[in-house]
Every structure is written in C-alpha cells, then in structure tokens.
Amino acid sequence: MLWLILIFVITPAVELALLVKIGDLIGFWPTVGLIFVTGIIGSALTRRQGLSTWRRFQQRIAGGELPGQELVDGVIILVSGALLITPGVVTDLIGFLGLLPWSRLLLRNYLLSRFQKTVVSGARVSFGGGFHGESDDVQQTDPSVWRGTARPQPSHRSDLDAGNEGS
C-alpha cells in the first residue's frame, strides 16, 4: 500500500513542484522545451538500447542459451522508456539511469540477486493437497511434480471401470 501511495500521489506532487521551481528559474517555455527534449532523447535512447538488447536476446536463443540477462535488461529498458516519456525531473533521471549500460548493469545485478534470494527462500512451495492423501512435503520432493509430469491416479478400481461402462 505504501508503494502505491508513493507512486501515484507523492511522485507526481514532487515532479510538479520541481517543474514549477524550474519554471521559475528558467521560464515557462524553456521548461516545456526541456520536457519535450527529454522525451525525444529518451525515446531515441530507449529504441536504440531496446534494439541492441533484442539482438543479444536473439543471438543467445540461436546459440541455445537462456537469455536471462537480456530479459531483465529488456524490462529495465521498457520501464526506463516509460519514465522518460512521463513529464518530470525525477522520473527522467531514473529513466536515463536505466538506459545507461553501466547503471543498468548495477540495477540488473541487484534485481537478479533479489530474485535469487526470493526463489531460494521460497523454495518450499505448497502445491495444495497431495495426490492420494500425500502430504505436501512428499509431493514437493517428487521431481515429477516440479516438471508437471505427475498425474493423479484413480484411487479405486471402480474409477477405472466407470470409463468402460458403455463398451
């Protein structure tokens, strides 16, 4: 809930205050021009970085590798591009940082380490009630469940015969 308040209430208020302050310092039209220039430069940078990431993504796929870093870079570039076309000083700064290769590398490494910690700490996931009354612990240790290959088996002989009633 705090994140929603930050994103949708506080951020626009701060952005508006900064734009008004900048407008007081450099004037109304230069401030409007600044908004348009950052949007245009941001769009061009986003396109360039996005296409570069897309090429690396395709090369990794063609080489039989998983493009994990390229996927994370693509998300960072997408969010950065959206921030750059949003009028504001803070969003532009964050957006430009997401498009610079060195800062994107730092952000990608941070996000991947957070993701790994989340996956490792949440490794014991409950799959719901087990088959044939098995506990969740038994089901979680069965690798066939992880691959999605486990199938519930009929528990009574009558279940098997029910399908052959018409024959």
Brief sketch in words of this structure:
The chain has helices at 2-26, 28-62, 68-85, 89-99, 101-121, 136-141, 143-146, 157-162. By secondary structure, the chain is mostly helical.
How is this structure best described in words?
This protein is mostly helical and 167 residues long. It is 75% helix and 0% strand. The protein has eight helices and no strands. The chain has helices spanning 2-26, 28-62, 68-85, 89-99, 101-121, 136-141, 143-146, 157-162. The N and C termini lie far apart (59 Å).
Summary tags:
167 residues, 75% helix
What is the strand tally? Answer: 0
**Main sheet attributes: strand count, strand direction, barrel closure:** none
| Count of alpha/pi helices | 8
Overall mean pLDDT score?
79
Helix and strand succession?
HHHHHHHH
Distance N to C terminus = 59 Å
User: Overall 3D geometry?
Assistant: flat
Low-confidence parts: 125-150
Question: Which percent range fits the helix content?
Answer: over 70%
Rg computed from alpha carbons, rounded to a whole number of angstroms: 26 Å
Class inferred from helices and paired strands: mainly alpha
Beta-strand residue percentage: under 5%
Compile the SSE list and pairings:
Blueprint (H helix, E strand, L loop, with lengths): L1 H25 L1 H35 L5 H18 L3 H11 L1 H21 L14 H6 L1 H4 L10 H6 L5
Helix pairs in contact: 1-2, 2-3, 2-4, 3-4, 3-5
